[in-house]
Design goal:
This protein has 333 residues and is of the alpha/beta class. Among the domains are: 108-171, no CATH class; 259-332, no CATH class. Helix content is 33%, strand content 22%. The chain has 12 helices and 12 strands. It has helices spanning 50-58, 84-90, 112-121, 129-142, 148-151, 161-173, 191-208, 219-225, 243-248, 253-260, 302-306, 325-332, and strands spanning 8-19, 22-34, 39-43, 66-74, 77-78, 95-98, 179-183, 211-215, 228-233, 236-242, 312-313, 319-320. The strands form 2 sheets. The chain has an 8-stranded mixed sheet, with helices on both faces. A hairpin with a 2-residue loop joins strand 4 and strand 5 (77-78). Helix 3 (112-121) packs across helix 4.
Length: 333
């Protein structure tokens, strides 16, 4: 049997940011893989470390940030030790990034097509304008932009929010990357346009074979588009599961609480269930499990307060960071 090497492999990634009071650890031993052509969802509340994980992979970090990693493996390279010059050849060409607000990625005074052309030509310096424009139009058509050749001559203000996000996706895809990091790409869009934008990402995966890391707080998006899920809390990974496993049989109390707090998880007219409390400050993490102060598991005990659990496998092979990972299976059963 052939074993496919992951296109992205994070192994014990730690990130510290400089503050007036010293360095603060933002990411703690983040570990997960992404297979070629896979759509992986990364979920968690605000401040859980989702976006900082993507920015650490791209090394788009504030000054004096410190990355301590066993490895950030990407397509045979270790991005943790790659030089800044070599990283510039990775960003935009081998790894594309889609941010939350397309207007922060698009220049309002330059035609949309010219901006995508430039993203292509900067990594293909010998290519002429006509070839670059042909590639731009091909990518715009791939993500569902109608009349792409003419729309490429328009300016960002002439495009709707959903169409601008498609343009940003086309820009991320124009160099045929192996990986797309999409950070909350549909947050500001209504449900119909959101689905269309996500369909564009799925189409790119199907036709180009690109892997996608989809960062979102929307579990409905994850349920529909991701095949596997990384759950993050307080800067660390607390569970890794297939989408079906996560929704039907969560092995970490935080994952279960996220799913129970979804509006769609309750009958009409019933009150919504919120996770009590709030995530801890990264400057004041509990000594033990960071979720312990909010945990409602019947197995919660003193060890949860004193000892931090590691991300390890349950007896059936599932990954979670809980001292009682094997017992949660009994609750579901």
């Amino acid at each position: 049997m052939t074993v496919t090497e992951p296109v992205l492999s994070l192994q014990s990634v730690n990130l510290e940011l400089k503050t007036p009071d010293g360095y603060v650890r933002i990411l703690r031993d983040v570990t997960f893989d992404v297979a070629p052509g896979e759509i992986v969802g990364v979920v968690g509340e605000s401040g859980s470390g989702k976006s900082m994980t993507a920015l650490t992979v791209m090394r788009l970090l504030p000054p004096k940030a410190r990355v301590q990693a066993a490895r950030i493996g990407f397509d045979g390279d270790d991005l943790a030790t790659t030089s800044p010059r070599a990283l510039r050849r990775v960003r935009g060409k081998r790894i594309g990034m889609v941010f939350q607000d397309p207007m922060t990625s698009l220049d309002p005074v330059i035609q949309v097509g010219r901006q995508i052309d430039e993203a292509y030509r900067i990594h293909h310096p010998g290519v002429g304008r006509a070839e670059a424009r042909a590639q731009t139009v091909r990518m715009l058509e791939l993500v569902g932009v109608p009349d792409a050749a003419n729309r490429a001559r328009q300016y960002p203000h002439q495009w709707s929010g959903g169409m601008r996000q498609r343009a940003v996706i086309a820009m991320a895809l124009v160099n045929d990357p192996k990986l797309i990091l999409a950070d909350e790409p549909t947050t500001a869009l209504d449900a119909t346009i959101q689905a269309q934008v996500l369909d564009a990402l799925a189409r790119a995966r199907d036709e180009l074979g690109v892997a996608v890391v989809l960062i979102t707080h929307d579990l409905g998006v994850i349920a529909q588009f991701a095949s596997r899920v990384i759950v993050m809390y307080a800067g660390g990974v607390v569970e890794v599961a297939t989408t079906r496993e996560l929704f039907e049989d969560s092995r970490h109390p935080y994952s279960a609480a996220l799913i129970q707090s979804r509006p769609g998880a309750h009958r009409r007219g019933e009150p919504l269930v919120a996770i009590p409390g709030r995530p801890p400050l990264m400057t004041d993490l509990p000594e033990g499990c960071p979720f312990a102060p909010r945990c409602a598991s019947p197995y919660k005990s003193a060890v949860c307060v004193t000892d931090r659990p590691e991300l390890e496998r349950s007896v059936d092979g599932r990954l979670s960071a809980c001292h009682f990972r094997d017992h949660h299976q009994e609750v579901v059963a």
